[in-house]
Amino acid sequence: MNKLVILLFLFAVGSSMGWGIELFFRRFLDPVERKKKKWVNPGFLTGPCLPVYGFGLILLYALGHIELPMLDSNPFLQKLCIFLLMALAMTSVEFISGMIFIHGMHLQLWDYTPYWGNIKGVICPLFSLFWYVLAAFYYLCMHPRILTALDWLSRNLVFTWFIGWFYGILTIDLIYSFNVAGRLKAMADEYGVIIKYGAFKSKILDLQMEAKERTSLFVQTRMRTVSVREIFEQHRENFSIRIPHPIDAIKTKVKEHKKNHE
Question: Rg of the Cα trace of the chain?
Fold first, then answer.
């Protein structure tokens, strides 16, 4: 089967399944998010799609074919090493994706700062462990089924129409979401901050829920007309961090140096 079709299929399946995994994980299992007890659409896009999982599934599929001849005598250890490679690959995808949005759009799509050992709030040991578990699940349970699905698709190419439908919807979603991201970036540049995108969406959801609980029609109408900029300006301390100026970074290092030599 055409390699491009395989990649498109894997990306579509991974993006959709990943969105479902994140939705339920954040609601019921995430050590921080589950305490909020509310459903929040994960990720950057509006629809049920998380591209980082799409790229991740492509990597897992590729790594699922590798062999480690030096460990042929110990199949169990071989599998553990393959799981580790997969987890490192997924962590790398997560880190690269997160840093691209932080530096390119001034948006922090997820925030791991509450977790021990995090790097720039984008990756942390706990979630790398989750990637390891997910990699093991993929290799042991999903990889054979993915191969079967690709074999079936190669004999029923008419169903690639559904792949085309997925990418048509995704294109519309990308245009809309990047338009929103562009407006948020403009505000972030204006105030010299990085916007925590998840916290920002959560704040909007909180305001919407508060509006529904009010009995005053005036208040409800007012809440519907509040703009994104108004929400940002009124509550930005809850979902933004200041971009450190280079001079501030130098001053911090000088202070740390003096403190260490006192």
Answer: 22
